[in-house]
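Form 12-C: Joint structure prediction
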Amino acid sequence: MMYRPHTLAICLLLSLSLTVHASGDHEHEEGHGHSHGKEHGHEGEHGHEHEHENTTKISAAMATANGIRTAIASSGTVNATLPIFATLVVPPQQEIQLSGRFPGLITDVRVAPGDSVKKGQTLATIESNESLSRYEVRSPISGVISDSHAASGNLASSEPLFVIVDLSGLWLEIPVHPSQRTQVTAGQPVTLPAHEISTQIESIAPPAHGRPFWRARAKVPNPHGDLTPGEVTLAHITTAETVAQVRVENRALQNHEGNTVVFVHHDGEYEARPVTTGASDEKFTEITAGLNPGEEYVTDNSYLIKADIGKSGAAHQH
Amino acid sequence: MLNAIIRLAVERRFMMLASSLVLIAAGLWSYRYLPIDAVPDITNVQVQINTEATGYSPLEAEQRVTFPVETALYGLPQLEYTRSLSRYGLSQVTVVFKDGTDIYHARNLIDQRLGQISDALPEGLKPVMGPISTGLGEIFSYTVTADSDARQSDGSPYDAMALRTVQDWIIRPQLAQVAGVAEINTSGGFEEQIHIRPDPALLLQHQITVPQLVSAIRRNNSNRGAGYIEVHGEQQLVRAVGQLKSIEDIRDTVVARNGTAIVRIRDLAEVTQGEELRTGAATRGGSETVLGSAMMLMGENPKEVAEALERRLQDIATSLPDGVTTEVVYNRTDLVGKTLATVQTNLLEGALLVIFVLFIMLRNLRAALITAAVIPLAMLATVTGMVQTGVSANLMSLGALDFGLIVDGAVIIVENCVRRLSASGSALTLRERLELVYSATAEVMKPSLFGVAIITLVYIPIFSLTGIEGKMFHPMAATVVIALLSAMIISITLVPAAIAVFLRNGTGVHHTEPSGASSVESKRYGYQSLYERLLRTALGVPVMMIGSAALLIVGALILSTRLGSEFIPQLDEGDIALHALRIPGTSLQQSLDMQVLLEERLLTFPEVKTVFSRLGTPEIATDPMPPNVADTFIILKPKAQWPDPERHKADLVEQIEASVRELPGNNYEFTQPIQMRFNELISGVRADLGVKVFGDDLNQLLTAANAVAALLNSVDGSADVRVEQVTGLPVLTLHPKRQKLAAYGLTVDDIQSLLSTAVGGQQAGLIYRGDQRIPLVVRFPESLRRNTELIKALPVPLAGGGFVPVSEVADVILAPAPAQVSRENGKRRIVISANVRGRDLGSFIGEVQRRAMSEIDLPSGYWLEYGGTFEQLQSAEKTLRWVVPATLALILFVLVSAFGNLRDALIIFSGVPLALTGGIFLLWLRDIPMSISAAVGFIALSGISVLNGLVMLTFIRQLRDQGVALRDAVIEGATRRLRPVLMTALVAGLGFVPMALNTGIGAEVQRPLATVVIGGIISATTLTLFVVPVLYFWLHRRSHNKASLSR
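Section 2 - Result
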């Protein structure tokens, strides 16, 4: 009986040496390496640093190194635009299908496709079948012969002899689908980035030919004649022109915790400021609430601020 | 039988010695096949099934790929569990099998199952199994870079795409053929593509749809054979060629005819070299790079494979374009070499110390050399045994070897032979000498064999460990057991044979004392007389002796509770791995920009040699990270090149961490390369408690998860409560308006395919350039596909001509969506993890479970499961709770069967707690926490102390059997056994000294073990020498008295 304490002690120690160490297990495993303890300390500081989960501090040097730039919120116009693929067409009165008034023998053709013609210029001479008198076919408009079916010796019937188009000015026909209809009205400016042309909507024609879209029309000058009828091009319609009390650059806007925010910089501290946005165009967005004129907000690399505020939640999941 | 073996060894001594040559040859041959790595491989048997689903969002990937794949795997034999991950463009199912499953068989079965479901998967998606590799597989990484003035053949500088092409088509095919390589994985750069970027306005204008364009390319890009013809007896093959060869060819491809005009691709689209939509990137030293990594085939020798890779990479250098170079940035050989060097130094120095001690104690060079010869022989036998049993050599398995322990058995035998030989004088005939060696060996063989058997036995609890702990320590226990058993066999075969051959008399060649002394007593050394005097004093005050020993033990027990504790000391890999984490949703380019700044900052540290990183998912998704995560590898210079070579790495890490924390937007996790891979692959819940919520609806799951998190936070002792992040990926979703679609005669597919081609791109064929295959991709111009407003305006062509804008027939909404869907065992799940501080785990978990039961209200089809390391902890505790006492009982049983007496067995057993005291004290003094390594040290210790007591007690009993009086027998026996006890203790202790003091790479794993053994041996030896005889005397005196009284 003398030895029992010893045996007990032995059992205790051996189990201790093994089980205590198995329990050392959890200490080690939840950490990510040797620096676990330290890391923890840092997490603590970190939590303290971002007490209000909406701000972060970044030194000026660090901001410069990271390409964080700011701008001052100010008033300005915001032009909401609607991009639509539109077609350049020749206005009906500028494309003439010219036929002889009376059927007869074509005796003389003076122009070929591609020739420019003036208004009133004689294009061909036809000997009428009925009267056998000759009459001249004259161009009703100035333009270019785009097509010709006239040849000396052919009989002219009611078929068109010439197609004359006037390309000095074209129409941009913009299909406005029902969902867009309310945004588009006559008088709105239209730009064609591909051709660097600005114009405005002249009229909006109701749907035709069973096609369910309205057709907004804008005049497009073609002084050099280099625009091609039938060309499809992207048109930007300025649907609303807002004079915003406060506007910010679009790249300043970020989503943060379900809100649209801009990051306001004040004295090395960046704050995620929820804002209400109004109109928006390609470059600027109107801020209707949340930001005052004169406040400094982050433009370039605003994502970095968002990342910094949210970084404590960034975890490695497998 | 054992006697017969010894008899044989002595009689056939020359044959025995010759047989050692066989042992040496076998050992050397085996060494070539011994896989050597730094740490044991703790990866479970797993197969990753990756399906690349380009353009699929997490939800689609889960629904259309992950689910069918998971379902197909149900009922696989040996299946432990499956888990899966569905991310953007990727479905990954990880199948974990029970340990010991044959991986090739498992892969075969999976392959079969995957073949059966190929119809159930969306067209064009093919699940692929990951490389046959393990957590230790990533052994070699290199970067491909170009000099700044190097030019491509067309005169342009090398960009990320050109370098990627070099990697993909020159380097990779050659490296992939190196024996032992499972896969070469690539990160970074852009796969070369040729982009056809149609302008939607031009498509409208020419009335051509995207499918028409794609089919035009497909129909104009093939070669076709047309059989053969015979002409005048000659056979001529006929073929029509038509493969597109150049960008110019593509531009000239005819798409349609518009009236008399022919519409070519050049009229509709820009054709240019383009960048793939990549999911990953790589950087090095602050600029983008192409990073190649070699994955080693399972079970290969990492050292050899890495060396072969390095050689091959040097060969490849000659075939690279001028100015393009490769550089090795990570090579496992370095670490293996360093750890191996540490182990070698420790073993070599330990062996030298052992030889020295033997010589001093035996005063006989030959005897010392015979004993020392056991070391290399046992080592070679161990190597053979390791290769045969498939145990790999690493820090853990080799680290626990102590040559002192190995030679213990031999020491006892040699010492006894030397003693008997010198006692008997020099005038022995050959026959007499052989007989003497035989009897001297047989005399101590039993205690020595029992001792070794006991040391072997104490390793049994280690074999009972399962899971990661088991994988970590089984190789070590196996190695030690193999070494001990081989040493034991050598000590009863080769050792007596060698003694018979080489030891003519006990005094040896250098002995100066006159031989022929007739009595044992006359051979006393000074320390023996001193010991005898001390022992006599001790025997006078037995109670005080035993009492103070008990006090010491109690003191040590109290002290042991104050020691820190860790699972295993972390191997310092010499390099740092750093996860740089950004918020979910961060784009690859943004991540890349942030990473460049991070790397530049890291490079300002003079200790850093180079930095390289992998962002997002590499080509083969062995480690699928989202783009917001970067694995950063910081390769440090050798310490000698540091400004302050004395500096601690932990100190450097701390400074680095402080420095990089100043960078905005990054969160970090510091780890080490191998450790990181292990974490990624094992990937269970890495916290004390993981509550898993299973169910179907993600929102419901998240609600439940948040409720659980709130509950956990309210329970006493919880810390680091974290809900797995599953949401937050911004997704631009197109919701078709079905009524509108119907009105226009469109189908959902029409707008889906338009969107997928416009934004994601559609492959329309390949261009062949030698072996290189360049995908032809139809995708809308960057200016269009990046702008949400323009995506809404994209024209959807109508059957009768004309178009409607996308916004007319669909709503386009930007909203956060699940970033990933995790599943386990075929069900969606979210994990809430928590750690426990300042409270015992069991009661914490009990409370959580109880309260969850009543407070968390889950809809039907949802349930909670509890996991985490507490499971391992509980299972390990449960196992050890019966294995440790059982082992102790077993040892006791062995001792009892040796003595036929429980009391004596227990006396010997008392050496164990005595030994532990010294170990605990020394740990405390050196400020080393308790760990499994230290525990292994205690295990070895208890073996050694039992061995000592055994040797001493056997002799005392022998003397008593001869009728010597109790007190005399105790004194005489103890004194005569002083030399072997001291010797075994000294060799075992000194053998570990280099290990305890070394500071090289890998030393931190061995240090606790060595410290424990040294401390323990000091206490065990001093205490065994006094307490065991005193205890014996004290206990036997009573029965002695009783016996005389009754008489």
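Section 3 - Comments
Chain A touches chain B through 82 residues (CB under 8 Å). The domain at 49-80+243-310 of chain A is CATH 2.40.420.20 (conserved putative lor/sdh protein from methanococcus maripaludis s2 fold).
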